[in-house]
Design a protein that fits this description.
With about 675 residues, the protein is an alpha/beta fold. The protein has a seven-stranded mixed beta sheet, with helices on both faces. The protein starts with 11 loop residues before the first helix and ends in a 14-residue tail after the last strand.
Length: about 675
């Protein structure tokens, strides 16, 4: 995934059990960080920031921090007398929730004796202690539901119950969520309890989630699942990835059920069920953004200081024998990465030259990273980057992450130009190329918004099972075809087509044989049926000679894309300028270098810095082939989520179908 929302419950148990918070002073020593101090005291970093807001900057040696003491530390020794332990080796994909079920122990109990799990996730292969009560001891009173005074007609299907003492500010929604109940089930277990009062004892289930409920701020709320709602739909409603919803609500691992009470981000739109102010004590580290309309930053230029721009590219020139020009030519022909780097850099140069006509002057430096993390480190250590406005590059993931990591000390923005891989989170890292996950979700959105009244048919092979499952959640009334081999007949497809409705066929595969047979069959069936073809990933299989482009054109093939087709008419002046400078037609890497660099320079010239430009302006920017709309990542940094949905017509012309705001690039000189 690519985003998991990291949730820390370190401080919640002590808040529930303590009548008053205790503190101590900590004197900062050389080499200490907020993270190391938090681990030493078994609290979260957020807890330190809460009482020491200045700690978000650099910690000064000998300065004092106020540390809220954890109550667990005081309680563990007294409670271990009646406990024995099992040593468990963590297996792949195991979670605390699953271990709690397997060993019949609460997650909080596991964390109590494995303190690193308060702030870290389980690691495959590590050994942890699983507490087990010795025979003859117990820590909760369990009663069968048959012992409760509940009318037979109203008994819920809950085999065992326990007692729960209502805490201040707890609600039915919070308690139901904690014990994996619906609100209706909780009410049926307690028919005589109309209004919850602190101190009242009520009956609840025995399946306890991994944290108590504390209601103190307005970041999260509770939401009761309604009929026909899906996990995908809820992730869209609350603008949170599906895996993050599961992290917040471990019960979702067993599936979404009507009436479940979920913890979700508070969108401010009144979607949840809590009263005002009743939300959990957690902090969100992301803000939603709206792509809005297309921005023309040429009308907003205000900062005309000379821009200090650095480009990192993996030329690897040290590997070339420099005795003759012929050696360079041979190296360029043989080395694809070098060719891409040179093409990209020529686009950078065109953008820098074009920016001059707008009054934007640029001091440009370029470095050869030699495709080495060590070389990146050497470059940064040997040069002054404190006044650099932005770094574009490198191209490869490991060197990009190394660059961002080293330059966090200067807060220099680092823009990843071409990689579509999910990057580590650094506060100064901008991923300009959308990931495959973002492309897929853009197509999901398009299908969900536009497929009303259509007969939806999903064709997916075994390798695309996950995408198939997600599609059926987005489009619950769709029909599914599962090919048994790398071939699909027209007869099998026709059985799922409608004679009266337009058929939207979603083809999910990277197998050339299946793509070829399916598109050929659909092309024949299109003579008597209305058919449009879609995919969430236009992979290399669609470029194979066995997949007929004319078939794709007749099927009005739709797919998500990072860029759109280069429009030679509207960009004629740019093409002529490039031909005059470099004696060739610009390719996609040239255009990418130009579009990205022009976007960076215009943003720097229209705001105090790159970060400020996103504060000042919403909407997206668009140039020859690419558009940019950066959204903040949950754990730091930014990613571009601007995606085109492209369609192919019978004349094999491409057009953008998802973005009426997307206008062709208007030359800056006009």
């Amino acid at each position: 995934m690519k985003y998991l929302l990291i949730v820390c419950f370190l401080f919640q148990l002590s808040t529930l059990s303590a009548s008053a918070q205790e503190f101590k002073y900590h004197t900062v020593e050389a080499g200490e960080t907020v993270y190391s101090i938090a681990k030493a005291y078994n609290i979260s970093e957020e807890a330190i920031y809460k009482y020491n807001p200045d700690a978000k900057g650099n910690l000064e040696v000998s300065s004092k921090l106020v540390i809220p003491l954890s109550q667990q530390e005081k309680e563990v020794s007294a409670e271990t007398e009646d406990i024995q332990f099992i040593t468990h080796t963590v297996k792949r994909k195991e979670t605390l929730y699953r271990l709690s079920k397997d060993y019949n122990v609460e997650i909080d109990e596991i964390k109590r004796f494995n303190k690193h799990l308060y702030s870290e996730e389980l690691q495959r292969g590590e050994e942890i202690l699983i507490p087990q009560r010795k025979k003859g001891t117990t820590n909760t009173e369990i009663a069968s539901s048959k012992d409760l005074d509940i009318p037979a007609a109203n008994k819920p299907q809950i085999s065992e119950t326990r007692e729960h003492v209502v805490l201040p500010k707890e609600t039915k929604y919070g308690i139901a969520r904690k014990y994996g109940l619906t609100v209706k089930e909780l009410e049926e277990l307690n028919p005589k309890v109309d209004v919850l009062q602190p101190g009242v004892m009520i009956r609840v289930g025995t399946d306890v989630l991994n944290e108590p409920v504390i209601l103190t701020d307005e970041v999260f709320e509770f939401y009761e699942v309604k009929p026909k709602e899906t996990l995908f739909g809820l992730s869209r409603k609350f603008d949170v990835p599906q895996d993050s919803l599961i992290s917040l609500n471990p019960a979702l691992e067993d599936g979404l059920k009507i009436g479940m009470v979920l913890k979700v981000p508070n969108t401010g739109a009144g979607e949840g069920n809590l009263e005002e102010g009743e939300t959990e004590e957690l902090a969100s580290d992301t803000e939603g953004t709206d792509a809005g309309e297309r921005l023309d930053l040429t009308n907003k230029l205000s900062n005309f200081d000379t821009k200090q721009l650095v480009v990192f590219l993996p030329y690897n020139l040290n590997q070339i024998d420099q005795d003759s020009i012929a050696n360079y030519k041979d190296a360029i022909l043989e080395d694809r990465v070098l060719r891409i780097s040179l093409d990209f850099y020529s686009g950078v140069l065109m953008a820098v030259e074009e920016a001059k006509s707008l009054g934007i002057s640029t001091q440009l430096k370029t470095f050869d990273t030699r495709r080495s993390v060590q070389e990146v480190t050497n470059i940064i250590n040997s040069n002054n980057f404190s006044n650099v406005d932005a770094v574009i590059g490198p191209l490869l993931q490991n060197t990009i992450e190394a660059t961002a990591s080293k330059l966090t000390q200067y807060n220099v923005p680092v823009i990843s130009p071409l990689s579509n891989r999910e990057m580590r989170s650094y506060p100064n890292l901008f991923q300009s190329r959308p990931t495959d996950e973002i492309l897929k979700n853009a197509m999901f959105d398009y299908l969900q918004k536009n497929s009303g009244g259509k007969n939806i048919v999903i064709i997916a092979d075994g390798a695309k099972n996950q995408v198939k499952n997600e599609l059926t959640q987005v489009l619950p009334n769709s029909r599914v075809i599962l090919p048994s081999a790398n071939y699909l007949s027209a007869e099998k497809i026709q059985a799922q087509l409608s004679e009266t409705q337009e058929n939207w066929v979603i083809l999910e595969s990277s197998n050339v044989g299946l793509l070829s047979s399916a598109t050929s069959a659909l092309n024949r069936l299109a003579r008597n049926h209305q058919i449009k073809l879609f995919t969430t990933e236009k992979n290399s299989g669609y470029e194979d000679d066995n997949v007929d482009n004319e078939h794709l054109g007749r099927l009005n093939f739709h797919y998500p894309s990072v860029d759109k087709e280069f429009d030679t008419t509207s960009s004629e002046e740019f093409i002529e300028a490039y031909k005059e400078e470099f004696d060739m037609i610009p390719n996609q890497y040239v255009i990418r270098g130009y579009d990205l660099t022009m976007d960076v320079l215009l943003r720097l010239a229209s705001a105090e810095d790159l970060y400020d430009s996103f504060e000042k302006y919403t909407g997206f920017t668009e140039y020859h082939e690419n558009k940019f709309h950066y959204t903040s990542k949950r754990n730091g940094g930014f990613f571009n989520d601007a995606v085109y949905i492209m369609s192919l017509d019978e004349e094999l012309n491409l057009k953008v179908v998802n973005d009426q705001q997307s206008n062709l690039y208007r030359e800056f000189k006009d």
